[in-house]
Amino acid sequence: MENEIIKKSIAEEYKYGFETKVAQDTFPPGLDEGVIRALSDIKGEPEWLLEWRLKAYHHWLNMKEPTWAKVHYPPIDYQSISYYSAPKKKTLNSLDEVDPEILDTYNKLGIPLDEQKMLAGVAVDAVFDSVSVATTFKDTLKKAGVIFCSFSEAVKDHPELVQKYLGSVVPYTDNFYATLNSAVFSDGSFVYIPKGVRCPMELSTYFRINAANTGQFERTLIVADEGSHVSYLEGCTAPMRDENQLHAAVVELVALGNAEIKYSTVQNWYPGDKEGKGGIYNFVTKRGACRGDKSKISWTQVETGSAITWKYPSCILQGNDSVGEFYSVALTNNFQQADTGTKMIHLGKNTKSTIISKGISAGKGQQTYRGEVKIMKSAENSRNFSQCDSILIGDECGAHTFPYIDVRNSTAQMEHEATTSNIGEDQLFYCNQRGISTEDAVSLIVNGFCKEVFKELPMEFAVEAQKLMEVSLEGAVG
Amino acid sequence: MLSIQNLHVQVEEKEILKGINLEVKPGELHVIMGRNGTGKSTLANVLAGRDKYTVPQGNITFNNESLLDKTPEDRACSGLFLSFQYPVAIPGVNNMYFLKAAVNAIRKSRGQDEMDAIDFLAMVREKLKEVALDESFIHRPVNDGFSGGEKKRNEILQMITLEPQLSILDETDSGLDIDALKIVAQGVNDYRSPERSFILITHYQRILNYMQPDFVHVLMNGKLVKSGTMELANELEEKGYSWIEKELTAAD
C-alpha cells in the first residue's frame, strides 16, 4: 500500500522560492588573491584581517574537498561562483535606509524586521546574500551592554573582541569549507554578552541567498562572558533555482565561566525540486567551546531544507562541570541528502553531554547520523547520553547511523540508544479508523517522533518548526 | 443500518469469507463467535476498510450507502468504529491530542465546528469516569507502554468519545482480567441506545455474562453457519463447536 501511495507523491511547493529584484553589486565569478583583497577593501578591513584571510586562502589551495560524508554530488567548480554580492544601496544606520524591496522580502518571510510590529521581542539581524542589512532593537540591547551587530560592524567597532575570538574555536585551517569561509566570508553576525548579563531578548538572524550563482559565506561569532546568558535563533531561506548554490558558513561560540548559550536553527534552504534539480549545498561548520567552568552550550536544529546538508554542530567541553547538548531533527524528502550529527569532546572534569537526534527520511531521501563522543584522559567522571532515532516513510529512502565513541578515561559513563522504525501501515490504519486522514496521521506521528527536540525550541520557533515539517512532508504519503 | 450480502473476501488469493449475510438494525447487539482462524477479524477489518483484502463478490451497505468504495476515514466519519484486537502504539503522541484530532476530524466531516481544548478536556473528563480511568491516562502516549487492559479500556474510551452508530468490538474481551472485563462491558452497556448498534466478536461466552446480546452467530468455514440467541452462546460454552460441525456434515 505504502509503495503505491508514495509513488503518487507530489513534491511540496517551496513557498519561499521568490526572487527579489534589487540592484546588486556582484563580483564576477572566480577566486584568487585579488578577489580577497578587493573584498577586504570594500569592507574597509584592517590589515590583520586581510592577512588572516590570505593565510586561509593559501592553506585552502592545498586542501582537498572531504569525501567521507555519505552524500553524492557532481564536483563543484569553485571558480564559477561569485564570492561577493550585495544590494547596491548602502544601508546601515536605520531601517529607513534599507531598500524597500528587501524589507518586502523579509516581510514575505514573516520576519518582523519592522520594529513597530515586533511584539515578540526578538531582535533580528538579517543577512541578504553577503551583507547584513539591518539589526533591530539596537538601542534596547545597548542599554543592557549587549553587542549584537553585523560582523563587518563588529570588525570596525569592536576589533579587539573580534581579533581575540575569531578563529579561536574553528581555526582557519580546520576543514576545507571552513577554510574557504575564512578566506572569503563576507558578513554575518556578532554577539557579545558582557559579564553577568542575561540578554533581555532572543537574538535572531535571518539568512537569505538571493542573487544567482553566488555563494553565501557568512560567519557568526558569539561570545558569552562570565555568568551571562543568551538565546540565539537562526533561520534560512533561498529562492528556487535550477542550479545548486553553495552555502558554507562558520559559527563559533565561546562560553566563559558559568555562561550559557542556546543556539537554535531552523534551516529551510531551498531543497531542490522533486526530481532533485537545484537546491542549496549546505556545508557548514558549527562549533562551540565551553571554555569556563560550569558553562553550557546547547544546539537545537531543525533541518528540513537544502539539497545536501553537511553539518555537525559540536561542543568542546573544556571547563570543569561544563555541559554540551545537541538536539536535532533532520528531514530528507525527494532527493535530499543529509549527513549530520555532532561531536562532543570532553576535556574538563564532570563534563556532561546529551545528544538527541531524530532523522526522518521520505521519498528517495538519504540521511546519515554521524556523531563522535570523545572522553579525553583529563575528563574524570564525564557522562554522555546519546539517542539516535530514525523513521522511514516508504521503501525508497535510507537512514544510516555512524556513532563513534572514543573513551580514554575509565570513570566515564556512556549511554547510547538507537532505533529505526517505519511509519507502519498499522499506525496509519489505526489513525484512519479514527477519522484522521493519512496526511494528518503522518504529521501527527512525525510530530510525536520529534517532540523531544521541538520542546527545546523557543516557543515561536517550535510552532514554525511544526508547520515546516507538515509542509516538507506534504505528499510523502497519500 | 448495516447490511452484508453474500460477502466473499480473499487475502492473497486465499478465500477467507465465503458468502456472509448479516443484517444489523439500530439498537441491536450481535455476537459473532467462532474458533481461531475462522475469519472473525477479517470480517471486522473488511468492514473498517483495511486494504489488504479483496472482495470478489458481495456487497455491504451502511445506512443505505455502499461501504466498500469508501476510505477507512470516511467510514469512521460516517459513524463506524472498530475497537482493535491489537490497539496500535503511537510513541510521542499524547493520547488526548490523538483523541482530539479524531473528534475534530469527525466533527469537520459533519460540518460542525472544531472543539477547542477547554471544551474537549471537560468532555473527556466525564468520559474517563465511565471507564474508570484517571486523568493522567490521557496525557500518556497513545497505547505506548499500556497494559493489555489499559489498551482495551482506551478503545472503549475512544468509542464513547467518538460516539459511533455502529461499533465493532474485535475481541475486546480477550486478555482482560475479570475487573477490567466488567468495566469494558459496563462501558458498552452504558453506551447502548435504540440508535446504536454493536457487533461483538469473541471466542468466549464469558463477556456475555455481563451483556445482553440480541443475536448470536457462529462463524465457521467462512460462513455464518448458525444463528440464535443467548441460548446458543450457552450451548457453545457447554459443548464447544464440534457438534455444529457434525450437524453441518450430516446436512451435507
Can you give a write-up of this model?
The complex is a heterodimer of chains A (478) and B (252). Chain A has 478 residues and is an alpha/beta fold. Chain A is 23% helix and 35% strand. Chain A has 11 helices and 23 strands. Chain A has helices at residues 2-7, 33-42, 47-61, 100-108, 138-144, 151-157, 159-165, 176-184, 425-433, 438-454, 459-473; strands at 24-26, 85-87, 122-128, 131-135, 147-150, 187-193, 202-208, 218-224, 229-237, 244-247, 250-255, 260-267, 279-290, 296-303, 308-311, 314-317, 323-332, 337-346, 352-361, 366-375, 383-392, 398-407, 413-422. In chain A, a hairpin with a 2-residue loop joins strand 3 (122-128) and strand 4 (131-135). In chain A, helix 2 (33-42) runs antiparallel to helix 3, helix 3 runs antiparallel to helix 8 (176-184) and helix 6 (151-157) crosses helix 7 (159-165). The radius of gyration of chain A is 22 Å and the shape is globular. Mean pLDDT of chain A is 83; it is low at 1-12 and 114-121. Chain B has 252 residues and is of the alpha/beta class. Helices cover 37% and strands 28% of the residues of chain B. Chain B has 8 helices and 12 strands. The radius of gyration of chain B is 18 Å and the shape is globular. Chain A binds chain B through residues 1, 424, 426-427, 429-438, 440, 444-445, 447-452, and chain B through 48-52, 71-73, 75-77, 81-82, 84, 87-88, 90-94, 97-98, 101-102, 105-106, 109, 141, 158, 162.
